[in-house]
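Could you help me review a protein record that somebody else here produced? What it holds is a sequence and that sequence's fold in token form. I need someone to confirm that the token line plausibly describes how this chain folds. Take the sequence as given and treat only the tokens as open to question. This is what I was given:
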Amino acid sequence: MVRPPTAVQRRIIEAAEPGTGRLSGTEAQLTGLVRARLAFRHPRPPHAYFLTPAGHRVREEGAAPAAPAAPEPPPAPAPSGVFAARTGTETAPVGSEGPARAREVRSAWEGLIELRRMTNTDGSRERPCAWERGHLVQAAALALEAAGCQPAGAGRDGYRVGATPQPEAVAVREPTPDGLRGCAAALERAGWQVGEHAEARGGGRYVLASPRRT
């Protein structure tokens, strides 16, 4: 039986970042939350601590959860620090090339799917998580690169992902209609809502995409 969180643990849980569920506290306090299955430690630097679905329930419902299955830590992090998904807007090469790059992308995507499982309150792998909503451009770019879409750069055509004034939305541009439709389909499969729009000037087309919440 899992003990209810202590008053200190509850304060730490309630102070978690609203979007990501990231926790702050001493190493001993955070380790205690991990033992209580209310938090997990990300396996890559900076080894931050995040609420598990059980921890989210404590914060949202104000009640101790039933004992969940012990979580497995993500095998790879969502893109940050060492790894960066290619947005197609880079002015310099990003990361490795060839098979090594493919392995990095696959590992990052698998890590992001696991992060969804660990941080979505219902454990869904199909729906984007808070990290993605807080890092829209990188999250969309990773979904595209993991699906095999080609980013622009190094003299080649391909997708370009950019921020927009709209909350929780990115714009994806691709020079060919087939390429644009391929990007839209890849984002839909990754749990994003997409819609094709015309540029205000020039008549070009682009995809507006936002993470699905349900």
Summary: DSSP finds seven helices and six strands in the chain. Strands lie at 39-41, 49-51, 160-163, 170-173, 192-198, 205-211.
